[in-house]
Write a structure and sequence with these properties.
Radius of gyration: 29 Å
Largest sheet: 6 strands, mixed
Number of strands: 8
Distance between the termini: 22 Å
Oligomer: single chain
Structural class: mainly alpha
Shape: globular
Strand content: 5-15%
């Protein structure tokens, strides 16, 4: 990222320095803002600068957002987050055509001075500043600020407010934080309180729902579904014998509960909330989808859909916003299953804040409110998940059913590879089968808790497809058999695959 001078011109002096132009005979008695407001603005703009600093470290984000700048307005140097933030603050200010006054003008000038000059007005000078905002010098400077700090975009129609929309596209969790900071500006400048970021984004005409569907996936019940179809799909899953047994026993229990209820007998309360323990790529998401449909066909859930999310989908970067995200996830899950992957991350305090605990407490309340038509399935590595459940008495009391997912054996890994081949019209030669067998035995013998199982197999399959294409592309005559057959040379060497697996695992945890 370029560290060159700012391509947007910087005014030589901060607006606060204009105090020296105040004539001694100016004595406007009306105080339009207080020292308390100046202190609030200091805290807010310091927080904004911290947010901008974090985003400025993301070279990919800075490049992506600068790609939206009009070539005619660009000097070839990269703008920082502060420039875009200030530009959009000015747009918010200009949008409030009927509400502008000396206070709102002061707030905008304060934001400019903090974001561009790292200069903060002194609350002890509140009297002088209250006089300053009525001077021609100040008003002229404000016009200059608004004219010289708007970022011109290639397509202004595509991006109404660039920062939150780009952050949505790249799934950066700073999006809601930026929106909240925009809300706070409106509150400070125009005394307008906005209920939440969703309401606020709607008022701006933003369409951020596309990101929500990318971050969180909803699996609905297929048409003409039945319990028999679900059980057949479960049976066809590779391996998972212990999990299949646990599901069968749960179905038996629920079936008997239904029959007891029909006979007017009392039942013990059965929780549908479940903990999935085990390494990645072992079918946890697939089984959760099947469970949601099973619960529907047995009459314990009304819809049977599954809503999939994780920490990023539940935890915001600002106080009060986490509860909103959790409530949205629960609303999308009512009548079905809320599946939370890597749920232990909620209580690992990754960001130095306590918003993960806020998410857990909000979730527990909603689970109690909707205990008759909501199932929550939390999933992740065994040890961290056990610590997660023990971290909160509410979690311990609501999650007492555990499904254990184990690593796939070498034979099962080969079965998964063959299933990918079948879906994509490939076959494996005998020599290639031997090499694949050696590969899966090596991977299994050297696996650790983070071994990706089916995900590793999927990556290997895609590598074989690429290798086969590179091998046969130069052949003059291609027939059906050649196009669909993996030969031995299409299969990477076992040690090469093992090396790539270790590299991917270390990269994910870096």
């Amino acid at each position: 990222m370029s560290k060159s001078k700012n391509p947007i011109s910087i005014l030589e002096e901060s607006f606060l320095s204009l105090k020296k132009y105040l004539e001694t005979n100016i004595n406007h008695s009306e105080a339009v803002f207080t020292a308390s407001l100046i202190n609030d603005l200091y805290k807010e703009t310091k927080s904004i600068l911290e947010t901008c600093n974090v985003l400025n470290q993301d070279a990919a984000f800075i490049q992506k957002i600068n790609n939206c700048v009009s070539p005619a307005a660009s000097t070839g140097l990269l703008l920082k987050t502060e420039h875009f933030f200030l530009s959009e603050i000015i747009a918010l200010y200009d949008k409030e055509t009927a509400n502008k006054n000396e206070k709102s003008q002061f707030v905008l000038a304060y934001y400019y001075d903090a974001l561009r000059n790292k200069h903060f007005a002194d609350a002890n000078s509140v009297n002088e500043l209250n006089q300053l905002v009525f001077t021609d010098q100040f008003k002229n400077l404000l016009i200059k600020i608004r004219q010289e700090n708007k970022v011109s975009l290639i397509n202004q129609e595509q991006y109404k407010y660039l920062l939150p929309e780009i952050l949505s596209e790249i799934k950066n969790n700073k999006r809601d934080e930026i929106l909240t900071q925009y809300q706070n500006f409106i509150h400070f400048a125009f005394d307008k309180k906005i209920e939440n970021t969703s309401t606020f984004s709607d008022s701006l005409g933003l369409n951020l729902n596309k990101t929500k569907t990318a971050e969180n996936k909803t699996a609905n019940v297929p048409e003409e579904d039945s319990l028999e179809k679900v059980l057949k799909e479960l049976h066809l899953l590779v391996g998972l014998e212990e999990v299949k047994k646990d599901v069968a026993e749960l179905i038996n229990l629920l079936e008997i509960q239904k029959k007891r209820s029909k006979q007017g007998l009392k039942n013990v309360e059965i929780t549908l909330h479940t903990v999935f323990l085990g390494p990645p790529g072992t079918g946890k998401t697939s089984v959760a989808r099947l469970l949601s449909r099973i619960f529907k066909h047995l009459g314990f859930l009304s819809n049977g859909q599954m809503f999939e999310t994780d920490r990023e989908g539940l935890v915001a970067g600002y106080v009060g916003q986490t509860a909103t995200k959790v409530n949205s996830a629960v609303e999308a899950s009512l009548g079905g299953v809320l599946f939370i992957d890597e749920a232990y991350a909620l209580t690992q305090n990754l960001s130095g804040s306590d918003y993960g605990s806020e998410a857990v407490n909000t979730l527990l309340k909603r689970m109690e409110d909707h205990r008759d038509d909501l199932s929550v399935v939390v999933a992740g590595y065994t040890e961290p998940m056990q610590l997660f459940i023990e971290s909160n008495p509410g979690l311990r009391s609501r999650f007492n059913r555990f499904f254990h997912f184990k690593h796939f054996s070498p034979a099962e890994l080969f079965q998964i590879f063959e299933s990918y081949c079948k879906k994509s019209d490939f076959i494996v030669s005998e020599e290639a089968k031997e090499k694949l067998t050696d590969t899966f035995e090596l991977l299994y013998s050297q696996k650790d808790e983070s071994f990706g199982n089916a995900r590793v197999v999927r990556n290997l399959f895609e590598k074989c497809v690429q290798n086969q294409a590179n091998r046969i592309v130069k052949l003059k005559k291609l027939n059906n058999k050649i196009l669909k057959t993996f030969s031995e040379e299409d299969i990477p060497e076992p040690k090469e695959t093992q090396k790539n697996v270790n590299f991917s695992a270390s990269d994910e945890t870096a």
